[in-house]
Amino acid sequence: MNDLIQQDRSAGVLTLTFDRPDKLNALNNAMYTQLADLLQAADEDPAIGVVIITGGDSCFTSGNDLVDFLQNPPTHLDSPAFRLMKVVTQMQTPLIAAVCGAAIGIGTTLLLHCDQVVVSRNAKLRMPFVNIGLCPEFGATLLLPRLLGHARAARLLLLGETLSGADAVQWGLANELCEDGAQCLTAARQLAQRLLALPQGALRQSRQLLRQATLAELQATIRQENLLFIERLNTQEAQTALNALLNRSTEKNPSKGTPP
């Protein structure tokens, strides 16, 4: 199988691009494994100072590939998606996201772990976990209320409301708004160069200090969320909602992805 995540190394920056446009960059287990491997290798490579994650100029990611997700659901804490979460929370290398179009489910919760998030005006961030009978993941239940306050976090996590790119910046989920995909990636690369120009030892130590006060709590929260996520998957409520979503997605556009 061809790689579904493209790599570009340039002057200390590793850019990882989800490359599954026919499925709206929906993430399957192979992609979770590949992304975790690439991030872990980058974190161990002294030649890499910053990692950028993007989905190109049309869609960041539509979330889980539901066909793969239903056929190969996470059943233990070392499942591919959960391993990715562990790798990301342990990274020492600065992480930037360049987000255009849809960022559904883990496409949004991943952003909570990035040091900088650049979004295009057409970005659409959504976390519809409850809508499909599941619970949030990737520490969202800890990080979002602290970032946004309970009421706003509840609108996103309980009601599954969508945020535009402009709203994401206004609410504090992103820090820079661009007009289109080309500008979005350019802005991310400019931020990467600014980070690379800094004393690297001081940068990494400062990043660690920013995160260490909540790291143990975050990891414990992610573990609890993941255990409950596995439990929720086995409920009739979730199975009914997921299969209904899969059927609607297939009927509406059989050639596209199956979010979230």
Automatic annotation (TrEMBL):
InterPro entries: ClpP/crotonase-like_dom_sf (IPR029045), ECH/Chromodomain_protein (IPR051053), Enoyl-CoA_hydra/iso (IPR001753). Pfam families: ECH_1. It comes from Pseudomonas violetae. It comes from the Bacteria. It is found in: Peroxisome. This is Enoyl-CoA hydratase. Keywords: Isomerase, Membrane, Peroxisome, Transmembrane, Transmembrane helix. The chain crosses the membrane at residues 93-112. SUPFAM superfamilies: ClpP/crotonase.
